[in-house]
User: Fold these one by one.
Assistant:
Number 1:
Amino acid sequence: MRVFVILPAAGLGTRMAAGQASAAPKQFLELAGTPILIHTLRAFADVPAIAGIYVAVRPNEVERVKAHVAEHGFAGRVTVVEGGDSRQASVANALAVLPCEADDIVLVHDAVRPLIDAATIQRTIQAVEKHHAAIVGLPAVDTIKQVERTADGALITSTIPREYIVQAQTPQGFRCGLLRRAFAEAAADGFVGTDEASVVERAGAAVAVVPGSAANFKITQPGDLELAEFYLARRAKA
Ligand code: C5P
């Protein structure tokens, strides 16, 4: 059994660019002097069980990312592929060239979650070995409301007990055969989900949850870079 990683990194980062002079996609912004994508790559490259990492980027960024990958010494283990118009399309493009057997494990991780740690990656792999599908999730601490959007703003329709809620993070891991089947079914039905688990859930598979952490957050909006720098500095001191 081998473990492969897909890093979708073809987003435009429009929420991050809002109100900023620079429109650089967030995965290429620097964190402590190194692009976010390289931090994320390093986190997975440091786990010996991982056989190969596939990064999906926008077509016009393929050459730049290949150069970054070589410059940071990852050339042998990292393959750069073209992403698509949605996160799901980017993952599908990487999956199409992944040399995995049905029983191998595929972990999908947001390129913009650079603070993932080796222990959580290992726990996810172990959970996939046992359950065939597992994602990292953070138990909700806030009370969660379901709302209806109206012209006057949001109106609460119900309160969802928070013990039933986890916030989906990544990595999200699956047996390769299961992920391929789920993606094929989604493509046939025109279903587009915001994560891989939703695609696998609708294919009828049970998906386990591995505890995540607040540090494994998705760099999304202005201010998040400072927060990531804080977590990085704290980790360096530990
Ligand atoms: O936009 P969102 O926060 O959902 O992005 C999650 C991850 O999916 C990011 O790493 C982003 O680069 C990636 N993505 C992608 N292809 C797209 C859109 C998003 O690889 N078309």
Note: The two ends are 33 Å apart (CA to CA).
Number 2:
Amino acid sequence: MSLSVQHLTKQYGEQNAVDNISFEVNEGEIVGFLGPNGAGKSTTMKIATTYLPPTSGKVSVAGWDVTEQAMKIKSVIGYLPEHNPLYLDMYVHEYLHFIGRLYGMRGKHLKQRVGEMVERCGLVREQHKRIEMLSKGYRQRVGLAQALIHNPKVLILDEPTSGLDPNQLVEIRKLIKEVSADKTVIFSTHIMQEVQALCDRVIVINKGSIVADDRLDNLLSQRKGTTAVVVEFDQPVSKEELGKLHGVAHVERITSVTFRLTSDGTADIRPEVFKFAAQLQVSLLGLKVEEHSLENIFRSLTANTLEA
Ligand code: ADP
């Protein structure tokens, strides 16, 4: 087991930022840690990387306990924190040397490792530049290089693509995929496509609690029955009456004449909508089945936060 989190709680004052969560990540897995802002992702990652102590519960990395064997854990874990703190006035090459020395590397080995990281993270042309001269995408590459310098078994990346432009985003995702080949990786994001692009398993956290922990394909297939349709009428109709239709679990009013109906999975709701329109003698101008996308799943799992 690479990472084990058992009944972890973290309180900041009165607030439970993380509330009794448990999960495990096996060796070689790439797991997306997904949730809206404030869900508790960074807090969990800071605890797993030994930067914050838990309030209660047990967290271990590669079998070592975060509170008792922090130095051991630091030697096998690579961490790219949110907002990627770098020494901006250092040169890329110099910075990676500095980080390598912190991990106890010296001489030839250090030089070789910095060279490998520069190569692997696509920094050959940037290595003699000052970090402050680099674009956000290249800074993220430097952040990844420092996280990988000691060849860690476990890689923890906190929102590694946030704030990148679409081209940089694709490049950094590709790089993460490449460097993940022989590692256990946990990365946080609030972007579903990112999870889809990078990993097989997703843990969804909301308000400090885990609301889903499954393979992506399972998550999609389990919810196949609950499709949504968007319907448009030529005049306003009652939301309450729509909610009474057979097979309708939830109605969301988009405009006075447009509604999103979510099915409870027991019946196809489209014929019901046609009958409803005919009975009321209103025209149905449109009816569109919404694909059951990961975005919709994310919205439904974390809906209480978004509506708050
Ligand atoms: P995420 O990474 O999912 O955005 P965080 O773990 O950063 O979530 O935050 C979880 C909750 O804990 C938020 O409500 C946040 O405001 C709160 N929080 C985070 N860090 C601190 C801190 N140092 N002191 C007090 N509250 C904090």
Note: Residues 107-120 form the longest helix (14 residues).
